[in-house]
Write a structure and sequence with these properties.
Glutamate synthase subunit beta, five-stranded parallel sheet, 4Fe4S_Fe-S-bd, alpha/beta, about 30% helix
Length: about 500
C-alpha cells in the first residue's frame, strides 16, 4: 500500500473522453489518447489494500487487483503486467469493454466513489504492449494432443491460448471471414479499436494457435468429422440466437435485429464496405432494448448521421444511487449509468421526447405501422408499471424509418447444424448442458462461454475459456493440469 491516506486525499478521476462534436465524426475510441497515464498512479494509490478485497469476489477472473494497484502506484509496470496477465488473457479487452463489477465490489465503494479499477487495468495492458512485456509464450514442447475450438469470441480465444501454451495443438474455427466473434463484428470500433484484437491475435499465431476462418462447423465441415479429427472439441460459439419481438407490423421492411445492423458498421470500419446497407443516415431510428447492445446501436446511429435516435427500455428509470435494501454492496447495482453513446445522444438531443439522454424508460412496444410500400414509418408504444402492465392513456407514437431490436439472446444458434449433428443436449433455457468438468453429453466435447452459460459479460466469457481449458488439459494429460480454473460451470455473479 503505497499511500495509506490515498483514498482520503485523492478524488476519483476517470479517463477523459474526447469532445462529443469531435468523436461522433469518426470511429476512433472515445477516450483522449495519452490522457490516462498522467492520472493513473494517483488513482491506483486510492486502493486501500483492504484485508478482504471483495473486488476479487466480484470479478470471476479473480484478478489480483490490490497487487497490481500497488505496483502501478510504484511505477513498476513490468511486475504489474505480470500480475495482471496471471489471471486475464486479454486485459486490453476487459479494460475497455467490461462494466467493471469489481468496482461495485470495491470496499471503498461502501461510502465513497470506487477505485478506478478498470482504468488501471487498461493502463497496465496498454503500457505492457508499448514496453514489450507481452511477448509470445509458445510451449517448450508439444504434447501430441489436438483440440478444436469452435468460435473465436473471448471464451474461445481464452481457451485456445491456454491450451496452446500447455503444449496442445489447437485450431480455432470461425464461420465469419475474420477472427474475433462479437469482438470483431458486434462491438463498435469507438468502444474498442480492432487493432487491439489484431495485436493479440498476432501473439496467439506466434505461439502456435491455428485459425480457420470462413468455416462453419456443421456446414463446411461436418460436426462428426471434426470430432473424429481431434482429441477434444470445445464449443464456444456464443449465444447468438436473438430474441424476437412478436407484435403486429414486425414483418415491415426496415425492422432489423441489432446483430444484423452492428456487423455492417464494423465492416465499413474494416474497409469491406463504403456505406452500410442498413445505414441510419437521414433516418428516424428507434432502438427497442435498453442494454449495452442497444447503446452500441445508439452510438453507431449517431455516427451514421441519423435524423433522430430514441432507445426504449422496458425497465423504469433507475436511481442515481444503489438501493441498499434490494441491491446491497458488494452486488452490482442497477443504477443510472451514462455511457459514452448516451452522453453523445443527450448533448446532441437525438431524442427530444426522451426521459433521459436518448432513452424512454418503462416503455413497451405495441405495434409498428408502415406506408403503402410496406416500409416501417412509426412505432406505437405505451408506458408500463413495474409489472410491465400498460398504463391507460400513456400511448405514444414515434417516427421510425429504421427499427433495431436489441432484446438479448437466448442461446447458441443451431442453424449451422453443429449441435444437432453431434446430438448435444440443451437445457430448458436453450443453452448447452454440461457437467462439473464443462463436458457435454458427447464424449470429448466441451462447452464454454455464452453458449452454455447464457448471455453474460466478457469477464465471465474469458473466465469460462480459462476454466474449460483446464478441464480439457486434465483429460488430455490423464488427470494432471497446471492450468488455472477460476470458476466452475455453475458459478454465478453475486446477488442479493
Amino acid at each position: 500500500m503505497a499511500d495509506p491516506k490515498g483514498f482520503l486525499t485523492t478524488p476519483r478521476e476517470e479517463w477523459p473522453r474526447r469532445p462529443i462534436e469531435e468523436r461522433v465524426r469518426d470511429w476512433n475510441e472515445v477516450y483522449v489518447p495519452g490522457a490516462l497515464l498522467p492520472i493513473i498512479s494517483r488513482q491506483a494509490n486510492r486502493c486501500m489494500d483492504c484485508g478482504i478485497p471483495f473486488c476479487h469476489e466480484a470479478c470471476p477472473l479473480g484478478n489480483l487487483i490490490p497487487e497490481w494497484n500497488d505496483l502501478v502506484s510504484r511505477a513498476d509496470w513490468r511486475a504489474a503486467s505480470d500480475r495482471l496477465h496471471a489471471t486475464n488473457n486479454f486485459p486490453e479487452f476487459t479494460g475497455r469493454l467490461c462494466p467493471a463489477p469489481c468496482e461495485a465490489g470495491c470496499v471503498l465503494a461502501i461510502n465513497q466513489p470506487a477505485v478506478t479499477i478498470k482504468n488501471v487495468e487498461v493502463a497496465i495492458a496498454d503500457r505492457a504492449w508499448e514496453e514489450g512485456f507481452t511477448p509470445p509464450r509458445p510451449p517448450d514442447r508439444l504434447t501430441g494432443r489436438t483440440v478444436a475450438v469452435v468460435g473465436s469470441g473471448p471464451a474461445g480465444l481464452a481457451a485456445a491460448q491456454q491450451l496452446t501454451r500447455a503444449g496442445h495443438t489447437v485450431a480455432v474455427y470461425e464461420r465469419a471471414d475474420r477472427i474475433g466473434g462479437l469482438l470483431r463484428y458486434g462491438i463498435p470500433a469507438f468502444k474498442m479499436e480492432k487493432r487491439h484484437l489484431n495485436r493479440r491475435l498476432g501473439q496467439m499465431c506466434a505461439e502456435g494457435t491455428k485459425f480457420r476462418t470462413s468455416t462453419a462447423i456443421g456446414k463446411d465441415i461436418g460436426a462428426a468429422e471434426l470430432r473424429a479429427r481431434y482429441d477434444a472439441v470445445v464449443i464456444a460459439t456464443g449465444a447468438t440466437a436473438w430474441r424476437e419481438l412478436d407484435v403486429p407490423g414486425r414483418e415491415l421492411v426496415g425492422i432489423h435485429q441489432a446483430m444484423e445492423y452492428l456487423p455492417l458498421a464494423d465492416r465499413v470500419c474494416e474497409g469491406d464496405l463504403e456505406v452500410s446497407p442498413l445505414s441510419a443516415a437521414g433516418k428516424h431510428v428507434v432502438i427497442v432494448g435498453g442494454g449495452d447492445t442497444g447503446a452500441d446501436c445508439l452510438g453507431t446511429a449517431v455516427r451514421e448521421a441519423a435524423v433522430s435516435v430514441t432507445q426504449l427500455d422496458i425497465y423504469p428509470l433507475p436511481e442515481e444511487e444503489r438501493d441498499e435494501d434490494t441491491e446491497p454492496w458488494p452486488t452490482y447495482p442497477k443504477v443510472y449509468r451514462l455511457s459514452a453513446a448516451h452522453e453523445e445522444a443527450r448533448e446532441l438531443r437525438t431524442a427530444p421526447a426522451a426521459d433521459a439522454d436518448a432513452r424512454l424508460f418503462a416503455a413497451s412496444t405495441l405495434r409498428f405501422t408502415g406506408d403503402a410500400d410496406g416500409h416501417v414509418r412509426a412505432l406505437h408504444l405505451v408506458e408500463v408499471d413495474e409489472r410491465r402492465r400498460p398504463l391507460p392513456g400513456t400511448g405514444r407514437t414515434l417516427p421510425a424509418d429504421l427499427v433495431l431490436l436489441a432484446l438479448g439472446f437466448s442461446g447458441p444458434d443451431r442453424e449451422d447444424g453443429l449441435i444437432d449433428q453431434l446430438g448435444i443436449a440443451l437445457n430448458e433455457r436453450g443453452t448447452i448442458t454440461r457437467d462439473e468438468d464443462f463436458a457435454t453429453n458427447v464424449p470429448g466435447v466441451y462447452a464454454a462461454g455464452d453458449a452454455a452459460r447464457g448471455q453474460s459479460l466478457i469477464v465471465w466469457a474469458i473466465a469460462e475459456g480459462r476454466a474449460v481449458a483446464a478441464a480439457v488439459d486434465r483429460r488430455l494429460s490423464e488427470g494432471a493440469s497446471r492450468l488455472p480454473a477460476p470458476i466452475g460451470p455453475y458459478d454465478r455473479p453475486m446477488r442479493a
